[in-house]
């Protein structure tokens, strides 16, 4: 590399540093139309690295798109807009930018990351059981898309973990409602919620408690066959859990024991999952 080229690069770097340092009020203080796409993009990256909030970075990346549409830099800037919005917890904006990238560059190597960001923008809003479950369903759908379309990617591996947690979140919501009904002695309504967990969320951490609550609810209704069967399933699959100990104590306190009895929906589950009798 010649001395003149090195000098030009050094001057260019100093100019960029001065521009970035002097634009605390945002991109509007710099005439971005006089700069090339790479420089504006680098200014956006610098904002992401040095600023706690990412609005200025988003504006720089948006300007790259506006001034240099359909360029390689515009493509990079679009995915970075999605990332910057997500970093700033602007989840709707992150989803919009990620979806725009997917629609515009569906075959690009960064499409997997865009779909992961889209899913993550739903997932990161699932922060408490009481939230609207619509976001959880959307997160599950978006995470499943990443898993199915990019199964060998790091994004898929991360999506699988988050999918399991989001799935558990839905089960936790059913449990919350079921406990609400159980506390108020609305036993049939409570049973319906716990049944959903046992039948539809078998892989979640909520199942042991759901089975124990079924024991409680059925005993309260005097339906001892169902209570004993629920405890039998609980004992077979989660014998070491505190929920089984509690169920066992409830039953033995009434002269009963965990065992499959009758022909209820629980008895069918027992026959299918424990005895392997599917017909």
Describe this structure in words.
This is Outer membrane protein assembly factor BamD. Part of the Bam complex. One of its GO terms (biological process) is Gram-negative-bacterium-type cell outer membrane assembly. It comes from Albidovulum inexpectatum. The structure is a single chain. The chain has helices at residues 3-21, 37-50, 55-67, 72-87, 91-104, 111-123, 133-149, 154-183, 187-200, 207-221, 224-238, 242-252, 265-273. The N and C termini lie far apart (78 Å). It has a domain at 185-279. 37% of the residues are buried. 72% of the residues lie in helices and 0% in strands. It has 279 residues and is an all-alpha fold.
- Proportion of beta-strand residues: under 5%
User: Biggest sheet, in brief?
Assistant: none
Number of helices: 13
Q: Which range best describes the helical content: under 10%, 10-25%, 25-40%, 40-55%, 55-70% or over 70%?
A: over 70%
Radius of gyration: 28 Å
The class by helix and strand makeup works out as mainly alpha
Distance between the termini: 78 Å
Overall outline:
elongated
In round numbers, the mean pLDDT is: 87
Unreliable runs: 1-28
Secondary structure: number of strands: 0
Summarize the structure.
This protein is mainly α.
What are the defining features of this structure?
0% strand, membrane, 279 residues, elongated, mainly alpha, lipoprotein, BamD, 72% helix, disordered N terminus, 13 helices
């Amino acid at each position: 590399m010649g001395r003149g080229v090195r000098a030009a690069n050094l001057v260019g770097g100093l100019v960029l540093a001065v521009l970035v340092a002097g634009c605390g009020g945002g991109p509007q203080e710099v005439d971005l139309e006089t700069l090339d796409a790479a420089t504006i993009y680098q200014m956006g990256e610098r904002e992401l690295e040095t600023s706690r909030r990412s609005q200025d970075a988003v504006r720089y990346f948006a300007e790259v798109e506006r001034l240099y549409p359909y360029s390689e830099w515009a493509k990079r800037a679009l995915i970075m807009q999605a990332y910057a919005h997500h970093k700033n917890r602007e989840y709707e904006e992150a989803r919009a930018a990620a979806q725009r990238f997917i629609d515009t560059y569906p075959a690009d190597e960064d499409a997997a990351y865009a779909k992961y960001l889209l899913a993550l923008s739903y997932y990161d809003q699932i922060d408490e059981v009481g939230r609207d479950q619509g976001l959880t369903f959307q997160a599950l759908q978006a995470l499943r898309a990443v898993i199915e379309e990019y199964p060998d990617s790091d994004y898929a591996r991360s999506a699988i973990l988050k999918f399991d947690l989001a799935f558990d979140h839905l089960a936790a919501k059913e449990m919350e409602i079921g406990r609400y009904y159980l506390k108020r002695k609305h036993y049939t309504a409570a049973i319906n919620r716990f049944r959903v967990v046992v039948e539809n969320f078998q892989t979640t951490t909520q199942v042991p408690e759901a089975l124990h609550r079924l024991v409680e609810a059925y005993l309260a209704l005097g339906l001892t066959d169902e209570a004993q069967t629920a405890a039998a399933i609980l004992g077979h699959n989660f014998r070491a859990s505190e929920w089984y100990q509690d169920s066992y104590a409830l039953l033995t306190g009434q002269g009963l024991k965990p065992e499959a009895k009758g022909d209820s929906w629980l008895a069918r589950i027992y026959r299918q999952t424990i005895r392997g009798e599917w017909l």
